[in-house]
Amino acid sequence: MSASNNGRICAYFSKRYILKVSAVLLSLIPCICSATDKEQTVRPNANVLVLMFDDMRFDSFSYRNGPVSTPNIDQLASESTRFDNAMSTTGLCSPSRAAFYTGRWGHKTGLDDNVELYSTRLAELDLNEGGLLRRASEAGYLVGHVGKWHLGARGTELRGAEIDLAHGHEPRERFSRVYTPYAKVPQVQGYYEGKLDENGEKHEYYKTLKGTYKDTEAYKKVTAGKKMLRQMAKDERPFFGVISFNQPHPAYRVPEPYASMYDPSTLQLPENHLAKRVNKPLAQDGVWWPWHDVGHMTDTDWRKARSFYYGAIAMVDRMIGELIQTAKEEGIYDDLHIVLLGDQGSMLGEHRLYDKGPYAYDELMRMPLLIKAPTLAPRTIHRQVSLLDITPTLANIMGLASDGDVDGHDLYPLMMHGDKAENGLQDVALYAYEWYNGAWFGIRAVRTPEYKFVWNPGDNRDELYDLKKDPGEVTNVITNNAYRQIRKQMVELLMSELERVDDPSVSKLKYHAKPYLTATNQ
Length: 522
Description:
By secondary structure, this protein is an alpha/beta fold. It is 31% helix and 16% strand.
């Protein structure tokens, strides 16, 4: 292993054990990490392909015993490190994507809300935040980006993407006027009045598209992705490519055969499906986007929306299969590092919620994550990891120069050694929900395998869930005396995590948390 990569792994262990040692002193400490020759797989000039999907849940794939047959994703999973408890930073597109590219929380980058959508105060991720794209470009990589960016007009081009294709819904002019969903308001109101869309459907929730798979916007991105892979295969430089899809983001719109692939009447629904929200923060009742108004949704509507989502996942599997086949045909697959992820999950009726919003339920917080490293044996990681951790991991794989303050940690030790690589470390995930299109919430959540605490500073009601007894997070036990000590421990854990990442909200939490910290079991 190179000295630079050896140092990165040592720095990883130092940070995770929270050693209070200065950077100068750390440089003098000899690295005690070791690896066999077989494990010396991290190398500069590695070819990397990122497959990113929008609002893709963690639980639908057949490799996770989900309801959708996903043979191509399953095959990739069998060749990869599976991170079965990967967590997004924020259940909102722009902030989670900014976190992925930079490895930093929104309170550091300034990107903590959606961009380019009505009510938001933000137009783009600051160009000083070059992230993985610029770092790879400056390191001599051929950088390519296909599809959705959602971090500001021309952001990929301005960060060094030589291949820049099939843009998402972003405008091409910086600081354009934001998109405002005027037409969606009367459309949703019409559903209350019995006014259905074509084919008797509710197109803000589910729609059968005309034409075939090859007529979809998603297929245009597949075609552009294939073009990028072919160009990269012919270039002598190492490459870093991202193919980013809008699928399966709601509304769930797919052509046949995907629209009727799953029978709505036979779907198995989770226990928290349409569960009443009792003792929950008021923000969860808000209509933050027109289709959050779901009072018109019947049991059949909810089932159809779910069945169309499953159809979208089946189509995603086909898309992935085609891209992998192209990589094989071009002779680049065997040495290719592949990262498959979703930026966050999505709600399909759990807690009577649709899409995403200001909350921290697992259906939104958790995301799929696979990392294929050609020389590493496949394995499954059960420890919680963060979207932020992918950034330093890829930087290590590609041999990129340091980007300063990065909040994530390198996952390569887990990929080499499994869960035991972090024995003795707290298994914890941190989550935030600062804004939604201009509405402030300031939510912070901390999750262990057993419990989840959600601080809602904009509301007078926090949340505590016993994930072993109540995995659907239906019952908020924040006021249950039996959980006083657990509540105290989770609040202290959240404060510790916020301090670790220099989150300024910790000062407010310390004030709000006084009643929790002084209460003990009786």
